[in-house]
Amino acid sequence: MTEVDLQKRVLETLEADGSLAVSELVKRLDEDTENIETAISELESKNLVVTSTSGQVRCESPVPISKLAFRGELTPTQSVIQYLYEEQGYGQSQIARMLNYSPGNVQTNLDRIEEKIGRDVEQ
Q: How far is CA 45 from CA 82, 107, 122, in A?
């Protein structure tokens, strides 16, 4: 399973089941602990999950993961940005605030999304 696929599965599992311990995610996703921890770390760096001091991981996406159509090789963050931009009509500054990104970082992601999906991303 690719890193992006594992991140998507972690998000989907957390959305469905709420807050879970890393060990529970390992069991449910039948993956190595190291791979799950790497996926969680990457998702935390993108502000999509939070790990509490007690070790519970919960989804913090501004968009319900079930609403996202993960297409091709879009990362979970790119899927969130695409949904907020195209489906919800949010501007780059608003998306940047939601994700703790700079507007330039959002624009870079929009450019990458366009490359991956082969069309312009439009509001």
A: 18, 18, 26
**pLDDT > 70? residue 110:** yes
**pLDDT tens for each residue of 71-85:** 667 888 899 999 999
Has this prediction a pTM greater than 0.90?
no
Determine contact, residues 15/65, Cβ cutoff 8 Å. yes
Classify 73 in phi/psi space as left (phi over 0), alpha (psi -120 to 50) or beta.
Answer: alpha
Of the candidates 83, 89, 51, 47, the one whose C-alpha atom is nearest the C-alpha of residue 64 is 83
Residue-wise pLDDT for 25-48, tens only, equals 999 999 999 999 999 999 999 889
With residues binned 3-state (H G I as helix, E B as strand, rest as coil), the percentages for the chain, rounded to 5, are: 60, 5, 35
E strands within the chain? 20-21, 49-51, 56-59
Q: Which residues of 56-93 are buried (b: 16+ CB within 10 A; e: fewer)?
A: ebebebbbebeebebeeebbbbbbbbbbbbeeeebebe
